[in-house]
Recover the amino acids of this structure.
């Protein structure tokens, strides 16, 4: 155990040292005048200016979901997302959104219906751009929703018992069934939810921090339905789920049942990813609770998805 702790500490020191070197490199190469810095669990954030314009430099600590976020932002070309000025694997220089308040604040103040409409508008802008993008122009190594399905198999092979196996199996069946019957897959944000939508006084509401995944538009709704995490009792309400989906279906011409199925399967997959990231998951997990709320709704509307 002591050896494991020492090894983990050494690896973390290497990551921190490497992060500092990479930040300095990009600051120098991209001509960023640094005003402030911040560090999160996954990245270093630098606020400053470049060519007298307010910018944010984000440097990712290690390869993962956000490693190519700069390429994803570039592909959307500012349609529904922050504009990117420069990008490289593991780093992106983008416009700074000010004042930068998130949709979480609106939901907490009781404006969930308004927030849902805003997210629908953002998705509409992104999908219009993505639908006109040649598949050959997709970012390097951009995964598909089917690629992400491997999480189910990894969990089932690991012998872990934090998530009921019948729930994992049901999630996998629904997910793979939806993968096989997709219509018009396009480039999606992949993690669009309330904390990833910020307000800019010049450009309005925009998304940040895309993971990037190719799938049908109904997939994009899954992250919304399990957020904001600050108010689980809101998104765990069946009436909230139905009302949000009705709003999205109306504004974006979505298939209500397919969006509901994706939300169920993604809730299970989200819990699996949480375990893979080192978190403890049990029956109180909001993602698992959401899956258990949606499961009987699927039985009533689309029982074939659970067969």
């Amino acid at each position: 155990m002591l050896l494991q702790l020492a090894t983990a500490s050494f690896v973390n020191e290497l990551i921190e040292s490497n992060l500092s070197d990479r930040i300095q490199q990009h600051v120098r190469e991209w001509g960023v005048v640094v005003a402030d810095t911040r560090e999160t669990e996954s990245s270093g954030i630098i606020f400053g200016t470049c060519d007298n314009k307010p910018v944010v430099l984000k440097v990712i600590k290690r390869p993962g979901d956000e490693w190519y976020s700069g390429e994803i932002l570039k592909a959307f070309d500012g349609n529904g997302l922050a504009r990117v000025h420069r990008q490289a694997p593991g780093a992106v220089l983008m416009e700074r959104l000010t004042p930068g308040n998130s949709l979480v604040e609106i939901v907490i103040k009781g404006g969930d219906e308004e927030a849902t409409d805003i997210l629908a508008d953002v998705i509409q802008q992104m999908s219009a751009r993505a639908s006109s993008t040649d598949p050959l122009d997709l970012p390097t190594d951009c995964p598909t929703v089917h690629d992400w399905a491997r999480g189910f198999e990894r969990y089932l092979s690991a012998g872990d018992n934090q998530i009921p196996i019948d729930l994992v199996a049901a999630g996998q069946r629904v997910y793979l069934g939806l993968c096989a019957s997709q219509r018009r897959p396009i480039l999606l944000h992949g993690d669009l939810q309330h904390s990833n939508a910020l307000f800019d006084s010049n450009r309005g509401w925009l998304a940040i921090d895309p993971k990037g995944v190719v799938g049908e538009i109904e997939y994009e709704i899954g992250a919304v339905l399990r957020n904001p995490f600050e108010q689980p009792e809101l998104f765990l309400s069946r009436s909230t789920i139905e009302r949000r989906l009705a709003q999205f279906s109306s504004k974006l011409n979505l298939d209500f049942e397919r969006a509901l199925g994706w939300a169920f399967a993604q809730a299970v997959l989200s819990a699996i990813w949480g375990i893979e990231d080192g978190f403890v998951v049990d029956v109180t997990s909001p993602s698992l609770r959401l899956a258990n709320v949606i499961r009987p709704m699927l039985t009533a509307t689309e029982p074939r998805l659970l067969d």
About this structure: DSSP finds twelve helices and ten strands in the chain. Residues 2-95 form a domain with the Phosphorylase Kinase; domain 1 fold (CATH 3.30.200.20).
